[in-house]
Design brief:
The structure holds 2 protein chains of 2 kinds.
Chain A: H1 2-17, H2 20-41, H3 46-72, H4 75-79, H5 82-87, H6 93-125, H7 133-158, H8 161-181, H9 185-189, H10 191-203, H11 213-217, H12 224-251
Chain B: E1 2-11, E2 20-30, E3 35-39, H1 46-53, E4 61-66, H2 74-79, E5 81-84, H3 96-106, H4 111-124, H5 140-152, E6 158-162, H6 170-185, E7 189-194, H7 197-203, E8 206-211, E9 214-220, H8 221-227, E10 233-239, E11 242-248, H9 253-262, E12 266-272, H10 277-285
Parallel strand pairs in B: 3-7, 3-8, 5-6, 6-7
Antiparallel strand pairs in B: 1-2, 1-4, 8-9, 10-11, 10-12
Classes of the chains: A mainly alpha, B alpha/beta.
Chain lengths: ~260, ~290
């Protein structure tokens, strides 16, 4: 565990010092500007638009970080041979990989907290009403990005960087579309399509479950059971995915 | 200390292509206290063998046996090994000190002890002045120095250095070689790869030479030199203000010397002829 935290700490430092954090500052300033401009155009509902735009920017920036930095997280280490200096020390490959993933996740967490909090503050500034669901929206957005990050790492271990970016984006799109697709009449009447959807539900995470933005914007209630069952679903999904990633990395030839 | 048994590593770019043997049945032993030079041209298979040794990639067949003195499992063994990769690229946004803290922490060195070790080694390797700068501002030689400290800061029993002298200026090369000799005198076993024969000849007592993945020679440097030496001597003398150099046979040596002394010729040097390791390696390759 100590080794995982050591790798996490220095991975965070390495990413934090790269241009990513400067991008976050610019993104925050941009978010303030865009939210203000958008709310000016939104007649009657400036607070709602400000929150919608803010949370949208948070999700997109989280995804960009997870997909593009996640796909390079290990491949870059192999190409630049930096990992040889680390895994030659008494640390297991699993601990190293977990540390790398958690290091980048801490960057995602900061990104979610900074942009999420900023969005809520702008929303409240426009006289919006606070709801505890906002916290859940930020948490779920972070968890969605974390899952995408693990997928990016997974694909980067079995393909090259470009393909892993493409495959991860595909998983993200399918993960969001699968829920609504399953409700189509075409799927319901065809056993082939419904089997395909059933398989997809197992292989691809149902990101639709994590999207709470509409509930926040339209002040709809959502049960605690739904929130907890979604958390549990994601926890099991991540456990399986992380196990597969660690197993692949453990047996990978780092030539 | 470490035994390589029939190590073979095959690569295949595409399934329709023939196997490429990066290592072909390589077997040799490294004994405790040895300073072994691992020689071979570029692409001979040196780094591939080191990657197998460090468990970065698996050999196609064969076995690497570690002496229990290094440890009984992979993590224990790694805690007793120091490794410096070829052209060490380090985390560019960390400072030198942070990098050493990182790798030192992974070696379970307490922070107080680590602080002292970093001070001691960075002064010895002469990189102390740059420790608080980000590594991206380091030259290749400076990164090599930092990597070298990282490889030996935890006091390993066995050092594996992949081309440690590449990228260093002449003074740096001299310093590294001196430190490697000192460490070896302290009892650390060193295995270092190089394609520069003179470096190996200068500091090593043993040499392993591979060519196109095959082991060509494994043994003592003195032994290979004696084996490839002839019985001739080189004689240097001055006669009529001119320096003469002649190669003479062992059985003629005393007679020729007596004659020269009798004729009042000044003898400058008499030395047994022996080829350099580089000449021998070249001969073997031919």
């Amino acid at each position: 565990m100590k080794n995982i935290l050591t790798v996490t700490k220095f991975t965070f430092l390495e990413v934090y010092r790269s241009k990513l954090m400067i991008s976050l500052v610019f993104l925050s300033i941009g978010l303030l500007g865009v939210s203000y401009v958008a709310s000016e155009f939104a007649y009657g509902a400036p607070a709602k638009v400000a929150l919608d735009v803010g949370l949208g920017i948070m999700s997109i920036s989280n995804l960009i970080i997870s997909i593009f930095i996640g796909a390079n997280l290990i491949n870059k280490e192999i190409e630049q041979r930096t990992l040889y200096m680390v895994i030659s020390k008494p640390i297991s490959r699993a601990s190293f990989l977990m540390g790398k993933i958690l290091g980048l996740s801490s960057v995602l967490l900061i990104n979610s907290l900074v942009l999420g909090t900023l969005s809520i503050l702008i929303y409240l500034l426009f006289k919006g009403t606070y709801s505890s669901l906002m916290f859940w929206t930020i948490l779920f957005s972070f968890l969605e990005a974390f899952t995408v990050l693990v997928f990016a790492v997974f694909f980067s271990l079995i393909t090259n960087t470009t393909l892993s970016v493409i495959f991860t984006i595909a998983v993200f799109i399918v993960g969001h579309a699968i829920n609504e697709t399953s409700k189509l009449l075409l799927v319901k009447v065809s056993s082939f399509y419904s089997s395909l959807i059933d398989i997809s539900f197992i292989l691809v995470p149902n990101f639709y479950k994590l999207n709470l933005k509409d509930f926040v914007l339209y002040q709809q209630n959502i049960s605690n059971d739904y929130l907890l069952s979604t958390l549990l679903y994601l926890a099991f999904y991540l456990l399986a995915l992380l196990s597969a990633v660690l197993l692949i990395f453990k047996n990978k030839n780092l030539d | 200390m470490i035994e390589f048994v029939n190590i073979t590593k095959k690569f295949k770019a595409n399934f329709w292509e023939k196997d490429f043997f990066a290592l072909d049945n390589v077997s040799f032993k490294i004994h405790q206290g040895d300073l072994v030079g691992f020689l071979g041209a570029n692409g001979a298979g040196k780094t591939t063998l080191i990657k197998s040794l460090m468990e970065f990639s698996r050999q196609t067949s064969g076995e690497i046996i570690f002496d229990p003195v290094l440890g009984l499992n992979s993590l224990e063994i790694k805690s007793n090994i120091g490794y410096l990769p070829e052209r060490a690229y380090l985390y560019q946004h960390l400072t030198g000190r942070e990098f050493l803290n990182y790798t030192g922490a992974l070696n379970n060195i307490s922070s107080e002890k680590l602080k002292n070790l970093i001070k001691e080694w960075s002064e010895k390797i002469q990189i102390d002045y740059a420790l608080d700068r980000q590594i991206r501002g380091y030259s290749k030689g400076m990164q090599q120095r930092l990597g070298f400290i990282s490889a030996l800061i935890h006091g390993p029993k066995f050092l594996v250095l992949d081309e440690p002298l590449s990228g260093l200026d002449p003074i740096g090369r001299k310093e590294f070689k001196t430190i490697m000799k000192e460490l070896n005198n302290e009892g650390i076993t060193i295995f270092f790869s190089s394609h520069i024969v003179s470096d190996v000849e200068e500091i090593c007592n043993k040499v392993v030479f591979i060519e196109k993945g095959k082991l060509i020679y494994n043994g003592s440097i003195d032994e290979i030199i004696i084996k490839n030496s002839n019985d001739n001597y080189t004689l240097k003398f001055i006669k009529d203000d001119v320096i003469f150099t002649e190669s003479i046979k062992e059985n003629q040596k005393n007679q020729i010397l007596s004659n020269l002394i009798a004729s009042n010729v000044s003898i400058l040097e008499l030395e047994k002829e022996k080829p350099t390791l580089e000449e021998i390696i070249y001969k073997i390759k031919q």
